[in-house]
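Private note to self, pasted from the team thread so I don't lose it. Backbone tokens:
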């Protein structure tokens, strides 16, 4: 099957496809924003980061408590928290020498909740 055969078997209204494509691409966010969005969703591709986010969904915590709860080293947790902070998913609050981490905003809770609902359907 050559390319022209594929076009014919797909749909007979090629002119409408071109108009639709132009319309859809015109409403698409800028390329840079799409790259940022893809990077944002990559954060959720690591189960350790998702576990940390779920813990912070329940309570503000310090590195030591997160590490103990997940049975991991403080170094490993600190590395992931740095990444989550860089991606603006967690925020920090210092009390003396201790830094407490929490979810950056309600959007993160919503993303976790909707993602979990989706996989359970």
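Design output:
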């Amino acid at each position: 099957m050559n390319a022209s055969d594929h076009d014919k078997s797909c749909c007979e209204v090629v002119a409408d496809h071109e108009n639709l494509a132009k319309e859809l691409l015109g409403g698409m966010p800028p390329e840079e924003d799409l790259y940022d969005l893809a990077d944002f969703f990559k954060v959720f591709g690591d189960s350790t980061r998702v576990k940390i986010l779920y813990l912070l969904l329940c309570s503000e915590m310090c590195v030591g408590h997160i590490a103990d709860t997940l049975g991991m080293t403080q170094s490993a947790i600190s590395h992931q928290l740095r990444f989550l902070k860089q991606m603006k998913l967690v925020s920090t609050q210092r009390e003396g020498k201790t830094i407490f981490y929490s979810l950056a905003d309600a959007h993160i809770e919503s993303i976790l909740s909707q993602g979990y609902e989706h996989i359970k359907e």
